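Quick question about two entries, pasted in order.
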Amino acid sequence: MNPHAVRIAGHFGELLQGRLGADGPVALVTLPCPELAVTGTFRPGPGFGVHGRGQRLITPDRARRFLQALGLVPRGRFLLRAAMPVGGGAGASTAALVALARLAGSDAAPEVVARACIVAEGASDPTMFARPERLLWASRQGRVLDRTPALPRFEVVGGFLGPMRRTDPADQAFADIGDLWPRWRRAVDAGDLAALAGLSGEAARRTLARRGPAEDPTGWLARRLGALGHAIAHTGAARALLFAPGTVPEDWAACLRAAGLRGLIRFRAGG
């Protein structure tokens, strides 16, 4: 029996993203966001259709390629709705594909779903996994490079800044973060939230220095509001400030709006 309704959580940028060495793969640690999700419904029937409400998440051709890569016959009517903007760096595209798989009746393992995403789009977030923030993820290869224990708990506030930008799977122009990953592992093992937030901010600074925009206010906002660090969508518009639990100041929303951020959000992560 096929499920007739699903909800797949997205993410909110990346805690780390870059090349593992000058010639290494593009790798990332995602920032899962339970508040932003793709929801979907399915109606069995002849033919095949993928529809959206307000924005197209995936084309019918891409949906067919994805389902066929899972060994499924595309059939029926799928309706998908995203609570995040396409191109915002919040995982709308991958979440839509994972929702499509579940609606079509697939019970494939996350690794299999990830490979099908690569076939369909050439890149993937790791949101098909239960704890994606614990993975070092090769986003153009759809595979796990390393795993960590649970991250310490933290709070996130943020919003979207600037134009939306979809991921180009051929884009390899990321900063080198090969030196950051060993430090990230040690900080996770130690439960050192301040060190993790600082490493996330360093990865963001490297990306912004290489890819722009030059006047991005996220680092300044983190210092102004007393955050431990910040994170960005390394492709996309999501911007996040990382706080120890219970330390988010009351004026956070006003400060972010004044800096030009929109679609403000607050959620918990880690643990």
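Here is the second entry:
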Amino acid sequence: FYVDHLNNSYEAIDSTQGKIAVIESVRVTATVDPTIELTIAGIGTGQTACGNALDVTTTATTVPFGSVSITNFVDAAQNLTVSTNADGGYSVTAMESDQLRMLLGDGLGANDIDDTPGDNTAASHNVSDEWSSTSTKGFGYSLENVDAASVPFQYNTSSGNCTGTFCARQFADDNNNESAEEIFSSTTVADSQNVYVCYRIIVGPTQEAGTYTNAITYIASATF
């Protein structure tokens, strides 16, 4: 380019040459993928969850009750944590493969440890019932909300059939064609929201000796 110095007659009396280097703008982009993460962590013996000192040390993949009692509850727990960037939030559901079924050789026998009926015989996979009497036998669970946005009930719920000591439910039973039941959720993004799932078992004096097992599946789904 040229810069000209003109007189009042528009005649050039001086001229200077220069150069311009054209620099293009730099576009910066980044992609955030939709994500959801569910983690399960064990909780050790002696720690407290759902108002009880725990009798069993769990891992991320096992709840090893060991030898269970006919006179006292055996309590265990796991810590479930969800993180997601889904604008619509998330839902965590739970389902058991069957009631605790007796192992025979390489397969399962006909005997089982029934899911708890609750002290008022009202417990199901979607109805809560108080379960603080050791006369009520079976297997069930409760929840303690640490910082999740929403839970359907907690161990200290004191409404309906529950008095606030240990409010419990059965797990939805896949073998009985029951639908997986939501145990905690959110309607927006979540950063490490967690809930304690508390397992409880007690058996009757006529429960046949043996090892019993089932599998509980937790599924976290998000709405993007």
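Reply: The radius of gyration is 31 Å. The CA atoms of residues 21 and 27 lie 19 Å apart. Hope that helps.
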